[in-house]
Design goal:
This protein is about 30% helix and about 25% strand. The protein has helices at about 5-10, 30-45, 140-160, 185, 235-245, 285-305, 320-325, 330-340, 355-360, 385-405; strands at about 50, 55-60, 75-80, 95, 105, 110, 130, 165-170, 190-195, 200-205, 210-220, 260-270, 270-280, 310-320, 345-350, 370, 375, 385. An eight-stranded mixed β-sheet has the order 1-2-8-3-9-16-10-15, sandwiched between helices. A four-stranded antiparallel β-sheet has the order 4-7-18-17. Helix 3 (about 140-160) crosses helix 10 (about 385-405) and helix 8 (about 330-340) packs across helix 10 (about 385-405). The model has no long low-confidence stretch (mean pLDDT about 95). Bound molecules: zinc ion. Zinc ion binds near residues 78, 140, 141, 173 and 196.
Length: about 400
Amino acid sequence: MKAYERLLKYVRVFTTSDEDSESVPSTARQFDLANILVEEMKAIGISDAHVDDKCYVYGSIPATPGYEGKPAIGFIAHMDTAPDFNGDNVAPRIIEDYDGGEVVLGESGRVLKPADFPHLPSLKGRTLIVTDGTSLLGADDKAGVAEIMTAAEELIKGGMPHGRILVSFTPDEEIGRGADCFDVEHFGADFAYTVDGGQENIIEYENFNAAAAQIEINGFNVHPGSAKDIMINALHVACEIDGMLPAGQTPRDTEGYEGFFHLCDLSGTTEHASMYYILRDHSAEIMQARKATLKHIEKLLNAKYGEGTVKVSIKDQYQNMIEKIKPCFHLIENACAAVREAGCEPGIEAIRGGTDGARLSFMGLPCPNLGTGGYAYHGPYEHITVEGMDTATRVILNIIAKYAE
Ligand SMILES: [Zn+2]
């Protein structure tokens, strides 16, 4: 079976996760796909395939005789789709020999167009898979699931020598909890790759360091007619804080390796105001400087308005996996060689966000990210090509071959 055929089957299973849910997994419907995947794994010959009570699917392919001493390599993809957009009743459409131009998405009124997605002409001639405009596609990350499953099937059939291979499909990645209950020891891989990226030739092993800052501002409210030198308007202090941050360091103004302060929430009254920032930077040192900047602002404003006016609480969220990948850089070298052997020029990109792989890397399982061939995730314009999926599947198999050398 081809990877895209599996994708078409998986996207019909509703697996949206829910950030407001406290349960594990966040939505029970993710078990619907997990159970299908376990059955399919067993059918292709992964006899120990199982799903645990937290909806993590695990399975292993034993090494071919004589290759038991080779590194055990894992491949991981997530089953949930992003709560950002409807993930139910997904109705994919296949466009053969795509002309590289505009695509009307069903009756939705939405049009997938090169003006918004400049890479589209580069997909000319391929078989394109799009939505009907009323849902996301779910290639993120069911394409990764389909590619790993297809590679596993070929590996079991193929007679190509390989070390021990581990497969896992996880829930709740889109709400940042995909690594929470991942059992690294049970999984048993020495190294792993998440297959959860975009374009099929891209390899990612750097992500943001991330922290969040909650700022509480206590004002002092008196009648505005007699407020001279007395009133402290918490809302003005909030504006002052934002104004003291370095210019142009917002998500809108930054790209590549440039970090930012992002004001996500601001609310309040004269009496009290709250601000919520997220801080992001690939550099751990600059991240420390970002935190220090906020603490410095806290100190200055408390000196100006009185102790206790501003309270800055900073919480670390996740870290850049690069420090865990650097000591095992063969992961990247082998992935680059695997992409090249699949007929593409490898590209390295720094993730402007986090991945489950970053969390897993800090849990003891170094885990860079491979592309699936998908684009425009988390919304109705999500799309992927059959050819991109075939290449991503080939990359997985090539990596496995590298580690058997
Ligand atoms: Zn994803």
